[in-house]
Structures are given as C-alpha cells and as structure tokens.
C-alpha cells in the first residue's frame, strides 16, 4: 500500500484542478504516438497515423487522450486504492488489447512533459516528485495483470 503525505495529495489534486482534459490528454497521446511510433500499432482502428501532422489532427487520437485523462482522474479520486481501481483496465490492456506494459510508462512521461510545460515554474521539484510518484503507482496498477 502506498502512503501519501498531505502535501503529495494536495499537489496531485492541484494539478488535476488546473488540467484542461481536452487539451492535455490529446497532447500527451499525440506526443507518445509521434515520439514512440511503435505505440501506433495499438491504434490501427484510428485511421491515418502516418506522420505527426496526421496524428495531431486525428479526432480519434484526441478523443482517446481525453479518455486517458478521465482514467487518471479516477486514480486521483481513489489514491488509497489505485490498484483495485485499475484492476479491470489492467485485465483489458493485458488480455484483450495486448498492450506492451512499457507503453504505460512512455505515455506517463509524455503527460509529465505536457503538464510541466503547462504549469511552467510552478512545476517545482516537489510537485514533480509527487506527480511522478502518482504516475508510478498508476503504471504499476496497470501492469499488475501482466505479472
């Protein structure tokens, strides 16, 4: 079980309160698909993902980016039980979608970059530490079914 300090909880909640899901989610997923092109194989049904311009203008990519952030929102609202909160998602990604579990970390890194750019100087080392801890717990929960 992960122990969260009051400061960590406050940092995570503050980040989410300032997030525009319709902007940050798509930007993070777009970045992941562009920077790590092998991740595109899981999105074959999304149509044209042949180059950065196509990815950036793809409405299915944008919509799924929003879905991802709403999924993270669930983790934020259940910080004391992220593992069980994500149990079904872990099974889905492992057994049905066959997603390489390393891709969760790659997407988390892309989201961190988007959030850091959005927050600017208020994305301090302490805020980043809390955010990275949160994402590490989320990624671990998503990887759970793979073990």
TrEMBL record:
Cross-referenced PROSITE patterns: GLOBIN
Q: Which GO terms describe its molecular function?
A: haptoglobin binding; heme binding; metal ion binding; organic acid binding; oxygen binding; oxygen carrier activity; peroxidase activity
Q: Which UniProt keywords apply?
A: Heme, Iron, Metal-binding, Oxygen transport, Transport
Q: Which residues form the Globin domain?
A: 3-147
Q: Name one GO biological process term.
A: hydrogen peroxide catabolic process
Q: Which GO terms describe its cellular component?
A: blood microparticle; haptoglobin-hemoglobin complex; hemoglobin complex
Which InterPro entries has this protein been placed in? Globin (IPR000971), Globin-like_sf (IPR009050), Globin/Proto (IPR012292), Hemoglobin_b (IPR002337), Hemoglobin_oxygen_transport (IPR050056)
Task: Tell me one Pfam family matched here.
Answer: Globin
Entry-linked PANTHER family: HEMOGLOBIN FAMILY MEMBER (PTHR11442), HEMOGLOBIN SUBUNIT EPSILON (PTHR11442:SF7)
Q: Which family does it belong to?
A: Belongs to the globin family.
Q: What is this protein called?
A: Hemoglobin beta embryonic-2
Instruction: Give the species this sequence originates from.
Output: Cyprinus carpio carpio
